[in-house]
Write a structure and sequence with these properties.
This protein is about 35% helix and about 25% strand. It is of the alpha+beta class. The longest helix is centred in the first third of the chain and has 21 residues.
């Protein structure tokens, strides 16, 4: 096992792990845990978020909810939902995930099975340290329409085009709001507090929507 220490998260890697062993690990570890697992091509990554990582994740989740409210979109927040596909032998637990376009299809479901249910419409990965697993290929293979990645300074949007991610300037989910500007509000929250910053974010969203109406 190789451990990588960072100020925002720690990542540990296990190699030569079979898919069945990974599924057994998930079952035995249960869901009441703070760390998140990902699996691809025999490698298991165990990521444990520290406060900087988790604070960014929670703030962005709050902004996503504001975006849905202001744009009149329904949402089901699925958090670090365990996403596994036996046919692909790939698995991941994103920092946050959301059903928006397909919310009605899973609204009353307590368990999501990707064999019959759609994947989340949007997943977020906060990566102050880069994952050893290629999340772009992993989530693209699972058919996740939109993938956000935040590395502590840069906010990137990827949209699924013909089975592969293409970096985009505008979110397909939240157009016309330029969500790539979210980092300025993460910085502001450290100075002004989360509630005040969320109010400012809501006002900013309303202004962006009004300019195109």
């Amino acid at each position: 096992m190789v451990a990588i220490a960072q100020s925002a998260e720690t990542r540990s890697l296990l190699y030569n792990i079979s898919w069945q062993t990974f599924k057994t690990m998930l079952a035995e570890m249960g869901t009441e845990r703070s760390y998140r697992l990902a699996y691809d091509n025999g490698t298991v990554e165990i990521m444990t978020p520290l406060i900087l990582h988790e604070n960014s994740n929670r703030l962005i989740e709050g902004f996503v909810f504001v975006l849905c409210e202001e744009l009149g979109l329904e949402i089901k927040r699925s958090g670090s939902l365990t996403l596994t596909r036996d046919d692909l032998k790939r698995g991941a637990e994103p920092d946050s995930s959301y059903y928006i376009q397909n919310e009605a299809l899973v609204r009353n479901k307590e368990n999501i099975d990707l064999a019959i249910d759609p994947p989340p419409d949007l997943v977020l990965e906060v990566e102050y340290s880069r994952s050893a697993i290629d999340k772009l290929k992993l989530y693209a293979a699972m058919g996740v329409p939109e993938f956000w990645r935040y590395n502590g300074s840069t906010f990137r949007i990827y949209t699924l085009v013909e089975g592969q991610y293409s970096e985009a300037e505008i979110s397909l989910t939240f157009a016309p709001v330029p969500v790539r500007e979210i980092p300025q509000f993460l910085v502001a929250a450290k100075q002004n507090g989360e509630v005040s910053t969320t109010r400012a974010f809501r006002a900013w969203v309303r202004d962006k929507i009004a300019t195109v109406q």
